[in-house]
């Protein structure tokens, strides 16, 4: 009897692992993710019926009753899936009977701004409570027919020879209205182009007739990195004949010709700079020790960081026989230039002798590294692992119950009076 109980517990472990693994592996998806329903592959509805991920499950979006709203929703859906836009002749809703389940979104509303949202969850929405058999009331499901005609990436900026600003929207280049164009927007454009934002000058210029004009205004603070970061709004009229343009200055260059003076008791770093102007405040000098010590109790000066207005800096406190990489950049109130670097090794100094140093010139440029994160679905292994944990807890409880029952029966049998 006891063997059968343990056999039952073993079966329950296997069932629990399978259930939890399927729960996590089959249903996992990232909240707000969009896809075409694979159930309709190889049918007339292929690449038409849209699904959205909610509550770790794929479900459906009920179609909006307004055609214009459906068109904007379809455009956002297409862009989120990596397409340019929704086809002008494509469908935005489809009637399916019986309606597929579950329907997570009762309705979406994407703004009428000239630059549409980049993610469907950025649109306002009404979310249905999660019910496995919930259907859209009128059986109309959101749909889209996406096309890929991109010639540029959304948000990109380019300047024509006439200094006209072109912005990529929905995979196509558009000139911009100059009705509300000012130095604030011009600064953002120059910064995005890698130019000197402080020297940005707005301009009114012409463009070829085959380039469409985006009827949009941008409300910027001036410190945004991209024009897309500014608040955009629709303009219902643009100045005829000219569009928004900008004149940008190049950024100040980095210091050059780094050398080391080894005739002094301390190492002196020299450099040249030709882009000096009244806005420059300091030079930044930074040296870092390239040796890594494994003993945490060792105390040493691993870094040197200083500011100077001169074209030289005395490197005080460097460790002997240690390689340092020393970098110099020009500092302005609004930016810091790229760095130029040199490797410096301070020789061992004996009593009554001077310090020697060896150098190797290695020009480098600083770079901005963009990090991204992505949300991955939980794998089958993760589902099985979680299933094992849950099953183990369940089995422990079950075995405790079995032990209590056996103990009580033994006690009852022991104290039961003989007839």
Overall description:
The protein is of the alpha+beta class. The chain folds into 4 domains: about 5-30 and about 380-410, no CATH class; about 35-145, SRCR-like domain (Mac-2 Binding Protein, Roll); about 155-250, Mac-2 Binding Protein (Roll), CATH 3.10.250; about 255-360, Immunoglobulin-like, CATH 2.60.40.10. The chain is built from 4 helices and 26 strands. It has helices spanning about 1-25, 65-80, 185-190, 380-415; strands at about 35, 50-55, 55-60, 85, 95, 105-110, 125, 140, 145, 155-160, 165-170, 170-175, 195-205, 215, 215-220, 230-235, 245-250, 255-260, 265-270, 280-290, 305-310, 310-315, 320-330, 335, 340-345, 355-360. The strands form 8 sheets. Strands 20, 21, 23, 24, 25 and 26 form a 6-stranded antiparallel sheet that branches. It has a 5-stranded mixed sheet with strand order 1-2-3-6-7. A 4-stranded mixed sheet has the order 10-11-12-14, with no helix packed on it. It is flat and about 90 Å long. It holds the Pfam family fn3.
> Strand pairing plus helix content: what structural class?
alpha+beta
- Care to count the β-strands? 26
CATH topology of the largest domain: Mac-2 Binding Protein
Provide the low-confidence segments as ranges: 17-26, 296-301, 349-380
CATH class of the largest domain: Alpha Beta
- Oligomer state equals single chain
InterPro entries: FN3_dom, FN3_sf, Ig-like_fold, SRCR, SRCR-like_dom_sf
Domain SRCR: 22-147, 154-249
Disulfide bonds: 220-230
Signal peptide: 1-27
């Amino acid at each position: 009897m006891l063997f059968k109980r343990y056999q039952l517990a073993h079966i329950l472990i296997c069932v629990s692992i399978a259930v939890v693994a399927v729960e996590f592996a089959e249903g996992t998806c990232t909240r707000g993710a969009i896809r075409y329903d694979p159930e309709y592959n190889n049918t007339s509805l292929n690449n038409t019926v849209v699904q959205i991920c909610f509550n770790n499950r794929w479900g459906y979006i009920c179609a909006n009753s307004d055609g214009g709203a459906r068109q904007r929703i379809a455009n956002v859906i297409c862009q989120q899936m990596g397409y340019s836009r929704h086809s002008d002749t494509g469908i935005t809703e489809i009637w399916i009977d019986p309606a597929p389940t579950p329907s997570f979104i009762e309705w979406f509303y994407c703004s009428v701004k000239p630059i549409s949202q980049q993610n469907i969850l950025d649109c306002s929405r009404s979310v249905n409570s999660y019910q496995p058999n919930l259907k859209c009331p009128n059986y109309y499901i959101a749909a889209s027919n996406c096309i890929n005609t991109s010639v540029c990436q959304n948000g990109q900026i380019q300047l024509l020879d006439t200094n006209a600003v072109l912005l990529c929207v929905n995979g196509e280049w558009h000139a911009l209205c100059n009705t509300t164009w000012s130095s604030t927007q011009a600064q953002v454009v120059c910064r995005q182009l890698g130019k000197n934002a402080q020297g940005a000058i707005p301009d009114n210029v012409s463009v070829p007739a085959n380039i469409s004009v985006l009827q949009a205004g941008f409300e910027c603070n001036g410190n945004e990195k991209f024009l897309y970061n500014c608040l955009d709004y629709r303009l219902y009229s643009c100045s005829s004949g000219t569009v928004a343009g900008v004149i940008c200055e190049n950024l100040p260059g980095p210091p050059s010709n780094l050398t080391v003076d080894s005739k002094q008791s301390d190492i002196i770093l020299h450099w040249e700079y030709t882009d000096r102007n009244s806005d420059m405040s300091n030079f930044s000098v930074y040296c870092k020790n390239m040796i890594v010590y494994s003993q945490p109790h060792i105390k040493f000066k691993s870094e040197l960081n200083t500011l100077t207005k001169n074209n030289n800096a005395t490197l005080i406190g460097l460790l002997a026989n240690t390689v340092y990489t020393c970098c110099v950049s020009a500092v302005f109130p609004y930016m810091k230039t790229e760095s130029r670097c040199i490797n410096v090794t301070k020789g061992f100094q004996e009593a009554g002798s001077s310090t020697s140093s060896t150098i190797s010139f290695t020009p480098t440029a600083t770079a901005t590294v963009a990090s991204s994160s992505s949300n991955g679905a939980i794998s089958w292994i993760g589902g099985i692992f979680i299933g094992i944990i849950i099953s183990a807890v369940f089995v422990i409880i079950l075995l405790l119950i079995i032990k209590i029952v056996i103990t009580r029966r033994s006690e009852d049998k022991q104290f039961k009076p003989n007839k």
